[in-house]
Amino acid sequence: xxxxxxxxxxxxxxxxxxxxxxxxxxxxxxxxxxxxxxxxxxxxxxxxxxxxxxxxxxxxxxxxxxxxxxxxxxxxxxxxxxxxxxxxxxxxxxxxxxxxxxxxxxxxxxxxxxxxxxxxxxxxxxxxxxxxxxxxxxxxxxxxxxxxxxxxxxxxxxxxxxxxxxxxxxxxxxxxxxxxxxxxxxxxxxxxxxxxxxxxxxxxxxxxxxxxxxxxxxxxxxxxxxxxxxxxxxxxxxxxxxxxxxxxxxxxxxxxxxxxxxxxxxxxxxxxxxxxxxxxxxxxxxxxxxxxxxxxxxxxxxxxxxxxxxxxxxxxxxxxxxxxxxxxxxxxxxxxxxxxxxxxxxxxxxxxxxxxxxxxxxxxxxxxxxxxxxxxxxxxxxxxxxxxxxxxxxxxxxxxxxxxxxxxxxxxxxxxxxxxxxxxxxxxxxxxxxxxxxxxxxxxxxxxxxxxxxxxxxxxxxxxxxxxxxxx
Length: 472
Ligand code: ADP
Prior knowledge:
binds adenosine-5'-diphosphate; 15% strand; five-stranded mixed beta sheet; alpha+beta; Helix Hairpins; elongated; four-stranded antiparallel beta sheet
């Protein structure tokens, strides 16, 4: 280099600026969602091309390494095995050749001591902790970084470092070209930016891996749900159908031989199974209509006390004779202050849809109380502090049945969700009742939630706005 001025004169500075701009662009592109994981190596290769041109070097490499012994170890190459390095980009340089240059690296910004025509620098990757999966991706299985005695690879977390190696052919007289001197000036400026790009690449790759895994897991979960759903739906449709077919076939075949009472029993069973089938089909249809927004409310002033009494009477009548003796039903009306009342404020609601919600809640209270018990419906207005008028009406349907485990209290409102307890598995159901209730209550701008103590019963709360009666 001799007399040449080594300070950063204008053309050199703008050259560096151009490369830095390009590196920043590549770095941004590395984070783009559509970039695939091989992009890392491509960018590293492009980056190396730029650097080689800028330094007028002929050969070079960018190598990724793992620092084994923590940040206090200044010379991170000392404990490093050649195998623990992954070449990110090589240019006219063989991998082994690049490895042999590693000892030339001492500390940041230092020129290699043994081979005068090589410049080796550490790219500033900072403390980039390697997740175990990433370490596996970057390092061969034999790497000491993965197989350190006493530590499993799952606990391994190593700062990543990258090396930048640039090379020039030795001149005929055995000296180095002036490009080496120039490179020596430029290298510290460039390596920071190049290091930032590599960090970005690694993070982008890691993000993509994580996202891919998450997407794959979500897909598997969906597939599982779909299979479970099909199994539940087909069971709920096929079992009543099988009863209907069985009883009908027996009636047809042995009509004459069956006593009148037996025939009546068979017909009753057919009728019950058809009701179950019809209910399942209706629920499936209703859920899909709610999903597509095909259901609209027809609001009118509704006396919820009356509606609840009708629903209780229907539930009582619907109970099989042997179960009827095990249940008692109560309707409580209260004022907002908790004192007993004889009526509650009317609310603006769709009476048909509200009745459906009450029927569903009562049906569950009975279904999930296998030993019978008390089912209580409480209706009361609720007041907010400082408001002289009640704005909401609360309906609570309580039972003394098996209860709902705490972790399931929110999930029971999801479509097709059923608590997988031994007892609930024996009770038939599609897992749609509460999902439909939730949608219907939300259409009323209300809320629904559950409280429960396992083995001590559940309470389903519904909170509905009373609404303005003048708008009728
Ligand atoms: P289904 O009763 O058809 O299974 P639902 O949507 O009505 O569907 O209820 C979802 C799940 O919530 C039920 O499978 C049951 O596990 C649980 N559940 C609902 N109501 C009660 C209740 N009153 N007591 C105990 N568990 C209940």
